[in-house]
Amino acid sequence: MPVTTDAAIRAALDEAWRAAAIAEAVIARFGPVMPFRNLLMSDYLHAATLIRLLTARGLPAPARPVAAPPALPDDLRAACRMAADNAVAAIGCYEGRLLPAVQGDAEAGPVLMRLHDALSHVQLPALLHWAEMHGCPAPAAAS
Q1: In the chain, what are the domain boundaries?
Q2: For the domain 5-133, what is the CATH superfamily, name and number?
Q3: Considering 10, 12, 103, 106, which has the largest number of Cβ atoms within 10 A of its Cβ?
């Protein structure tokens, strides 16, 4: 089923909030550790960008879902792996559903492409770098 542009923006916002929830949970458990303290700020900026995009389109921005914090593994290395796996899944979502839905939209297309690029070229590499430094195996590639 094709995804509408507005639904793609909302789905990207859900991805940003999911990533922020993971970073918040890691920071709550382990303190403001790298790379999570930087990733959290990035996730907040991504969410704010998407909210502005919805508002500019005359659409209401959905409230951030209130959910229990995600269950975290017992150690930081495994939490890093969990976040990297989430990033890989988010990249797959962008590439498989969200970017095709906004292709040709002069406003939403470039915004979602920049967020995808930040996720692919900044956030995931930061998680993989940290994981490698601390002996955490890399996540499986998105399919």
Answers
A1: 5-133
A2: Ferritin, core subunit, four-helix bundle (1.20.1260.10)
A3: 12
